[in-house]
Amino acid sequence: MARITSFTTTDVRFPTSRTLDGSDAMNPDPDYSAAYLVIGTDAGDGHTGHGFAFTIGRGNDVQVAAIDLLGPHLLGRDLDSVLGDMGATWRSLVHDSQLRWLGPEKGVMHMAVSAAVNALWDLKAKRAGLPLWRLLARMSPEELVALVDFRYLTDALTPEEALELLRRAEPGRAQRIDRLLAEGYPAYTTTPGWLGYSDDKLVRLSRAAVADGFTQIKLKVGADLDHDVRRMRLVREAVGPEIRVAVDANQRWDVGTAVEWINALAPFDPWWVEEPTSPDDVLGHAAIRRSVAPVKVATGEHVPNRVVFKQMLQAGALDVLQIDAARVAGVNENIAILLLAAKFGVPVCPHAGGVGLCELVRHLSLFDYAAVSADIGDRVIEYVDHLHENFLDPATVRGGSYTAPLMPGFSAQMTDSALREFAYPHGPAWAPAPGAPAPSATAAAKEHP
Amino acid sequence: MARITSFTTTDVRFPTSRTLDGSDAMNPDPDYSAAYLVIGTDAGDGHTGHGFAFTIGRGNDVQVAAIDLLGPHLLGRDLDSVLGDMGATWRSLVHDSQLRWLGPEKGVMHMAVSAAVNALWDLKAKRAGLPLWRLLARMSPEELVALVDFRYLTDALTPEEALELLRRAEPGRAQRIDRLLAEGYPAYTTTPGWLGYSDDKLVRLSRAAVADGFTQIKLKVGADLDHDVRRMRLVREAVGPEIRVAVDANQRWDVGTAVEWINALAPFDPWWVEEPTSPDDVLGHAAIRRSVAPVKVATGEHVPNRVVFKQMLQAGALDVLQIDAARVAGVNENIAILLLAAKFGVPVCPHAGGVGLCELVRHLSLFDYAAVSADIGDRVIEYVDHLHENFLDPATVRGGSYTAPLMPGFSAQMTDSALREFAYPHGPAWAPAPGAPAPSATAAAKEHP
Q1: Which UniProt keywords apply (chains A, B) (predicted)?
Q2: For chain B, where do the domains classified as CATH 3.20.20.120 start and end?
Q3: How far is A95 from chain B (nearest CA, A)?
Q4: Given pLDDT bands bounded at 50, 70 and 90, which one contains residue B443?
Q5: Which of A57, A117, B34, B281 has the most CB atoms around its CB within 10 Å?
Q6: What is the ipTM of this complex?
């Protein structure tokens, strides 16, 4: 009988604020970071499970400490029982009554559960010799439904309805998998549009994205209206009328401001507006959506859990639902959200970028197409082209589409050299220049402008 | 010029799980805990500011670490500028862009802000020589509005509307303060109704509560329907028809189950049902409320922030709004919530109990009556009669009403002996019996049943 024998966390941070990669209206200077977890066993098969929570710098140490709280739930446990009933395992991690108080089911503690759940799925898929999306896509509807905690969902989706949805999508699974292997999954790119980039860089990268085969790009907005109108015009002129240009306000606006701002950008035909206001504001998103149609409303990367997604769908607040691989409690909760979206007929276009989010979330979209929604239509996965070199099985995009990952696991594993180089605060990447303050002091001194 | 010179945190835990004080359907074995903060200055006046986040055991160390992340925002800063513009200070703590990612505005990081904000208010009130509620109640409408961050609120409440509300409540402030000093503020008690108590203890404590002058008591429900029906009948028989008996499900139910369960308890005339489902489920609470009237729906102790409270009010989801002193980001955000409740005409009946929550929240209700809602009608503050002995200015209830606190500050300060005794894991209260495992191992081994 094999057991879980190690549960090891690392604080990994990339100094992305030095180049303003990732800058937007709410996050002017992120240092993309991962609270990183490796789960080891005594199975003797050489496999380890990797998972992480994504943060943007300060506080990544606290995120690591929150993951550590989950170790006692897994250390010493029988591997087959943990991996064999991932529904029960998920519930044991999410419903620890004392830890639940720290959310409940939101923020630091919920993201910690995400890291542990995803690490277990990485391990399970490696042991099965399959990339995660294929492991999930060969599970029966009954097995998939057993992964989902329907608590708080049954007024919108019952287990029976979920089963029915999955059964309806069973015919054609094999053909859809073949199509994914041959053609990949459509992507869009956010690389050109970071708020801290110059106009020249914006135009140059937008043209390059189109030349690379992308048919949708995304622009960060929300800091200054005149600035946004100018940048939106430049991009529209650079890419022509056929390319979809989404805008992303990163929660910057109140409801009224959102409507005014989007209307001012409307002449340049934005495809969707993302995070126009607080991710908690279901009714606010619904009000904005009613006022800005035909511009679509998208959100999700900061939606804390399935309960808020449920309401977004019930209230008709979204045209596009954006799952995040590591903010809700991992694979299981994302399956719940994919099922909800399928029930309500809303397309899922995942959030990615960050550290490793492209690597993870492609598995969920591929699984969704293969076994849940069976729809690929207007769906696209976000792509941002940095930090992939730090992963063993990096996301790759060709001709504007993600290629289907083939390596066993959930693609969450960083390279050993990345873990050494970017360990915080003692990795070489964080070594201070002679005479400069230590990195922790520098980081702490940065405040929101 | 005085500066903030120290920012000291302590992990304080009370072994309440040994007696099942605080046990309910979701929290069978809480160890009531405080992630405790003391802010010191070089002003030479002997005053320190005290604040805390309340947790129920495991994870309190992570909560402490999250509070520590805020130290660099305050250490070394000019005291007059920090305390003189508490609106700006609040925003600087909540909108640190990197730390905000960990919520945003929810969970561990937001509770950490609560501890820091409340500690600063404790310090400010001590320096003014006033209990917090009186300090707030002498501020002008303009000063109060400047404390509130209206981001994400303006579709429901604008600064101008808030000003108008506060101005309308200005006449009579002095008389209402006199009434509070003379009569206190009505309380209800949860002491009899913990789920882990025997029927005998439940009946005995319910009768004792009525004898002590309480006109409302509360019963934990939600684990087993037959059990709840029996306990509700016993209590109703023990206290008679005139005493209000509220029930509290602590988020145990889905929407459909909540409606069925409450209808089964309806013959015993429950006054309100508290936390029938997920605190994130605005639409769910609204649906439950429509189905169980005239039983009232109450929630709020786990509502993460003002944005969700705003929607609870917009959706008509609540008959009773329950603020918590230390889950949203402290005094400033609670003022925003009191203003929202006043705008929508919904009574505020605070959550208390826990560690120190009774001590804190009475200040907010007294301030609300004096300067915001000017209404006391059906309003009651929760009271639970344990752990008060650990505070310098403990909550006191006479004849079923909280007495008005008179000591300068926010009543957040624990006694030195409590801080020594209950420091975790090395305080004497946590010393293992000979041969028993160390407390950290014991704590980690407890799982949700």
Answers
A1: Lyase, Magnesium, Metal-binding
A2: 166-402
A3: 6
A4: very low
A5: B34
A6: 0.95
